[in-house]
Amino acid sequence: MKSPAVPNTVAAGPPLDAHGRPITYLRVSVTDRCNLRCLYCMPENGIDLVPMDEILTFEEIRDVVKVAASMGVRHVRLTGGEPLVRKGVVDLVAMISDVSGIDDIALTTNGVSLARYAEPLARAGLRRVNVSLDTFRPERFRRITRIGRREDVMEGIAAARDAGLLPVKLNVVVIGGLNDDEVVDFARSTCDEDWDVRFIELMPFLEGQERGGQPLPPATGFVSNAEVRRRIEAALGPLTAGAASDGNGPARYHRLPGAKGKIGFISPLSEEGFCARCNRMRLTAGGKLRPCLLTDHEVDLKSAMRGGAGDEGIRRGILAALATKPDAHHLRDGNRPRRRRMAQIGG
Ligand code: SAM
Question: Which of 32, 94, 309, 316 has the CB geometry, 3.0–4.6 Å to 81, for a possible disulfide?
Fold first, then answer.
């Protein structure tokens, strides 16, 4: 079979994908295991897990990061599943922070175990955390996550701040009929708290399951960020335009006048041109390099590494993945990721 055209790399800059976008950001799913079972993300009984010997070792992850860094990738984010359930994750952070060229290591977590890990993670070289929190209400938190305690997450957030993992960003997936009545509360919280609240549109995962890959309760569903913003502004007044973003994410940031924290909107479904700004690729826990969260094409880096392909094999794998990165997710044209859930790719 003819291999895909390998795009040119810019000697002194990051690799470019097939559409000329510089790819500077690698998201690494360190495990497909999770200690929560959020309604819209995971079935109650969990998912088919990748066997432990099929999960990338820390050394293998470090090798992929090292080669990616040599090609111009600068940011790494650890995610999952829940990254903090992977034993030794602090050691992995230390290993990545030793990789020359990586200047930003971040973590996306549900926050349940963050109180225990924030300080050691920061000492190992972690710079920032995003904490997923879909509700401030304890009973609702239990309902959405099926297992968790909101208090654990709040303690985790406090520990992250104490450890200097700033700014803490709260990721809120807004689902009509489930938590959309809290968007004003979340927005208002930025007045007194120096966290950034980011509203995320629910993405459809797995063909035929339009509402996040899960049979959500009746009368729940998608709410656009335009609607979220409308409700916030109706209650709290206009948001100031375009507060500075951190430069490497998909969020569009705004602020309430005088607020300590920012309000971000991540609008994969409703923002025209959302994908034009994409700068990322994803490594699954099982070692597949995925150039787009929402399309199923993957390159099997684990088999290449375990077959002795070495750094050059990893480099070729990265270039092959970038050569097939689609211009956009095409969800509105009916494209659906069919092979894996969000939790299996690394959200
Ligand atoms: N366990 C970690 C956490 O909770 O942040 C990392 C993995 S989790 C899959 C990453 C993020 O994906 C969470 O913020 C979760 O809410 C979000 N997510 C899961 N399914 C989603 C969907 N269908 N649409 C939008 N966001 C989703």
Answer: 32
